[in-house]
Every structure is written in C-alpha cells, then in structure tokens.
Design goal:
With 451 residues, this protein is mainly α. The chain has one domain (18-450). Helices cover 68% and strands 3% of the residues. The strands form 2 sheets. It has a two-stranded antiparallel sheet. Strands 2-3 form a two-stranded antiparallel ribbon.
C-alpha cells in the first residue's frame, strides 16, 4: 500500500499537482471530458479518409483507419502530457483530413500513399521549425489583444459547430443562415441536452460536461432517436494495409510534378501551423498559462507534440495531427496538468476496443458540451482594451471571422494583418516589432497563395 502511495506521489510531483492546485480526481475527470468531447474523431476521420484511401486488398478499411486515428492521437497526446506537461489533446485535424481526401487525392489525382508522404514531410519540417524555436517566436509575437480574442473566437467557433451540427442553425438562401426546424427529434434532444448540461454547470457539478454528454446520449437511445450500440467491445484490426504507406509514397514522389508536391506540403504546413498556434494560444489563455510577457511556457515542447504526431500519424496512415480546441472542455473541468493529456491518451488506446460503443454516441450528445465551453471561453473578451480602436477592431475581426469562416487560422490571419496596420495609422509604427511584421507578412502570404 505504501509503495502504491509512493508511486502516486511521484506522479503527482512529476505533474506538479501541488503548484497547479489540482489532484488525480480533477485531472481524470478533465481527461475523460476532453476525450468524450473529441471522441467523434474516431468515427468522422475514418469516414472521410476512407473515401480517398483504397488498397488492392478488398474489404472495409474503416476499422484500420480507426486504429490509425486512435494510435496517432494517443502518441501525440502522450508527448503533450509527459513532455510538454500541458492538458491538451491532439488528433487528426478536421478540415485537414477533408483537404487530404477531397482536394489532394480525389481532386489532384495523387495517390493516397504520396499524399501520406506529403504529410510525413510536413511533420519533419515542423520538427525542424520547432527545434529552431520558430513556432514559439510566432506565439510570442502575437499581441495580447489578439491572444484574448483568439480564446473568445475559438469559443464562438465551438458554439457555432454545436449549433450547426444539431441543425439549430441551418443554411438559408435568403439570409445565409437561419433557425432550423426545432421540431426535428435530434434538434429537440440537442436542445434538451443543452439545458441538461447547463443545469449541471449552473449547479457547479464536477464532471458536468461529461454527465451532460452521457445523459443526452442515453436520452436519444431510450427515445429511439439514435440507435443503441450494436456491441460494447470488438477486437481491433491492425492497419496492415495502411501502415508504411507514407514510405511507399516517398518512393513515388518523383512521379508527380515538384510544384504540385510543394503546393500540397505548403498547404498542409500553413493550415496546421496557424491552426495550432491559434488553438494553443486560446487554450493557454483559458488555462491561465500565459505569463506576463504574453508567452506560453514550454510552447516549443507543445509544438513538438503535434510535429511528431503528424509524422507518426502519416506512417500509420492518417492525415495531419493537430491540437484540438475541444481540449477546452477538459480545461473547463479543472484540468491543469499533463496528467489530463495522459488520461486522454490512455482512453484513445483503450478506445480501439470499444469502437462500436463510441460510434453510437450521436453528435447531438456532444454538441451541448461544445456550446457551454464556448460560453466559458468568451470570458476572455474582458481583457481586451476596447477603448483602443486599433486593438478592439483587430480583436473583434479575429473573434468574428473564426466562426464565420469556419477556420481558426483565417481569424488569426485577419487579426494579425489588421493589428500592425491600425497601430501604424495611430502613429505607433515604431512600437511594432519586426517579428510582428514578419508574422503579418506570413499570414498575408497564406491568404494570397492558399485562399
């Protein structure tokens, strides 16, 4: 017993529980909450990639893609938790997987192996950029108002995802978006879930978000709106058809135009770079990690997690791995140490045995948690100097563009290009650092070449 107690104390000391004023229970709940909020990736990513990845071996590759998704997410998240000691989780990025499947493989006609090779090359480039601390310098160069705006913008982005995925908000030819049919069963359950989760949060119930997810899913199953899980446990299939595809692609790289390869790698690189910068900045502010200089301590180690995760993920057969904004749900539950990420990583490993159960959790069950996290993250706007037009305008543009463009990087781009220009118009050109101008130029380059 004393040995077990001693080991637990060593773990607590390693993750600095006392300094961060946290404990095993809080960190475990935070990890479970983050995992539950982002577990949809285990079903969505394989679904998207399976439309573009084919092999000569007949059969459904969905199970193999689930394994690739879970393993790459687990490895990257373990690095984040143990090496960087942050409570943030990583997994193959949404948007990047769609670009991989529909634009690169199906659109350009590039083989999935070469596309994986491009992702692998991107990961190696990121490792080099991380070792040179280039990415860390970008975070430091971002003004305080944009950092706080990023946190708020991510909050709105999460809320927008929640509202559109449940069809509470739907497209409209007349007004672009409008309120959907609230009589739809799934929408009604989602609304009920919002009230259920909100009640838990209002009562300050620990683990309120995950309880909301489970209660909403159970309600949907009972009412027959979502099918019950067909099974609880299944034996995972090893990704024998996918593993090493990136190396095959490296050998075939010479078969495509060099300009085409560069453009593909460049696109992966840019989107991942600025999405990760934006996500880590927003999460860092939410968790209270930003120091007085506006720096994220150990940012380089955090960047290394997604760099290595991307390279390893490509080897296993999945698209770019990046930090997840859903990590905010765990942070909102009190997760402050890397142990939260370790719990998420372990759950990703365990999840490969529970694929039928996880696949049965409907999206309308996780949407309420995303909406409430959005509410919590909006608190960052109080730290913006609204009386300064240069700061308030660039901050507001950052906040509003993120959800409307459905992109963290687009919001950052607009904010970071407008900030130095507006400050210059105020006659404060000399106060803008060279790093700030470099970052603005990079974002402008992204808009010109990528949009």
């Amino acid at each position: 017993m004393s040995m077990n107690t001693s080991n637990l104390q060593k773990i607590a000391d390693f993750f600095q529980f006392q300094r961060l004023q946290t404990n095993f229970r809080t960190e475990a709940i935070a990890g479970i909450t983050t995992f539950a909020t982002m577990a949809y990736i285990l079903a969505v990513n394989p679904d998207i990639l399976s439309k573009a990845i084919f092999t000569e071996t007949p059969g459904d590759l969905f199970p193999e893609l689930v394994i690739a998704t879970a393993i790459s997410a687990a490895i990257a998240t373990f690095i984040m938790g143990i090496y960087a000691k942050y409570p943030f989780a990583l997994a193959p990025g949404m948007g990047l997987n769609a670009y991989f499947a529909f634009s690169v493989v199906l659109g350009l006609g590039i083989s999935w192996q070469v596309a994986l090779a491009a992702v692998f090359i991107e990961g190696l480039i990121f490792i080099v950029l991380t070792l040179t601390k280039f990415r860390e310098k970008i975070v430091t160069a971002i003004p305080e108002c944009i950092k706080h705006a990023t946190a708020a913008g991510i909050g709105l982005f999460l809320a927008y995802i929640a509202l559109t995925s449940t069809e509470i908000i739907v497209p409209s030819e007349a007004t672009i978006t409008t309120v959907g049919n609230l009589n739809r069963p799934t929408t009604l359950i989602a609304i009920a879930g919002i009230f259920i989760a909100s009640a838990f949060i209002a009562r300050r119930v620990k683990g309120g978000l995950i309880l909301g997810i489970l209660a909403t899913a159970l309600l949907g199953w009972i009412l027959g709106i979502a099918p019950w899980p067909t099974a609880i446990i299944s034996v995972p299939e090893l990704p024998i058809n996918l593993f090493g595809g990136a190396f095959i692609g490296l050998a075939d790289v010479g078969k495509i135009k060099i300009g085409e390869l560069i453009s593909v790698v460049f696109a992966f690189l840019f989107v991942d770079l600025f999405d990760t910068v934006g996500t880590l900045t927003g999460l860092g502010i939410k968790a209270g990690y930003m120091n007085k200089k506006g720096e994220l301590p150990n940012a380089n180690k955090a960047f290394m997690a997604d760099a290595v995760g991307t390279a390893v993920g490509a080897i296993f057969g999945t698209s770019t791995v990046t930090s997840y904004i859903e990590s905010a749900s765990g942070v909102s539950e009190g997760g402050r140490s890397g142990f939260t990420a370790v719990v998420v990583g372990l759950l990703f490993v365990v999840s490969i045995f529970f694929i039928p159960l996880l696949a049965a959790i409907p999206s309308f069950a996780t949407a309420p948690a995303l909406l409430i996290v959005g509410v919590l993250m909006m608190g960052s706007v109080k730290n913006i100097r609204w009386e300064d037009p240069a700061e308030s305008i660039s901050a507001f543009l950052t906040i509003i563009i993120m959800p409307l463009s459905y992109s963290i990087s687009e919001g950052l781009a607009v904010g970071l290009i407008s900030y130095p220009l507006l400050k210059s118009f105020q006659g404060k050109f000399s106060k803008i650092s060279i790093s700030m101008w470099v970052v603005a130029a990079l974002f402008l380059l992204k808009i010109v070449l990528w949009n």
